[in-house]
Amino acid sequence: MFIEQGVKSENKFWKYIVGSLVIIFASFLGQIPLLLALLYETFIKGKKYPSSNEDVMTFFEPNMTLFLILASFVFAMLGIYFVIKYIHNQTMLSITTSRSKMDWKRVLFSFSIWSVFTIVSTLLFYFSNPSDFVINFKPIPFVILVVIGTLLIPIQTSTEEYIFRGYLMQGFANLAKNKWFPLIMTSVIFGAMHISNPEVSKMGNIILVYYVGTGFLLGIITLMDEGMELALGFHAANNLVSALLVTSDWSAFQTHSIFKDVSEPSAGFDVIFPVVIIYPILLFIFSKKYKWTNWKDKLTGKIEEPVHFNDLNSI
After folding, report:
1. Which of 131, 140, 158 is CA-nearest to residue 230?
2. How far is CA 102 from the centre of its chain?
3. I need a labelling partner for 32 at 20 to 30 A (CA). Which of 7, 119, 120, 240 fits?
4. pLDDT of 177-206, one tens digit each?
């Protein structure tokens, strides 16, 4: 059982607090290249130092900005590995899946189905509202974007999944000894993590419904499937394909994508639509393909700490 793999008497919750701080510190180390680049441009080339996150996003050429921002996730992933191995004495596989090895077919299936949906829905939006988009395609910058995105965006999304659906999911399970509390906490924290995104300031807090709802989707498929493979594939497809297809002046990633959205940002039913319509359909597809059963216990059931052989000997 996936979530139970981290539930051990020696895995006290304070270790997860310490581990989270180590991961955050590793992420800060990963931001040093961006800071050095900013200082070089301001002190050597005389540019004005950016005063906001939005200014940082437009300070460099888009591909350079993307590379510098995503680089921090490489450090964060190394931090996760260190914490899992040396603080919790676990393997990376133990916070990835309950299977004996990573099921790459699951990752690919999830990646493929969400990539197709993202591409089709984007094209439908484009053809139904062509005035909201302009063609942004430039061959050389786009090829560079493809290389950077393909190499680093899966690391970024995997880092987030390992933190929320892996590490913290098991951490809150150690604290609460049930499954519903880890699901709620990781989903809400995942959504709140996006509150500083420029989309929130432009579209309002209602867009957090989408982020929290996405957190719940990823948490549900992780618990039901007894592993993170489907969540890893979905998240990678969502960020990578979106970065390649569409950018805007108010999106988190400004990229040399194929299209640029020039419409005035607004949030309405289109924000809630994926959460209440598309995500349930996706859950239905996954549940039929992988024959999920016993939903109530897998999502809300209690967790019993496994009894080890050494424990029996001490009775």
Report:
1. 158
2. 18
3. 240
4. 999 999 999 999 999 998 888 777 778 788
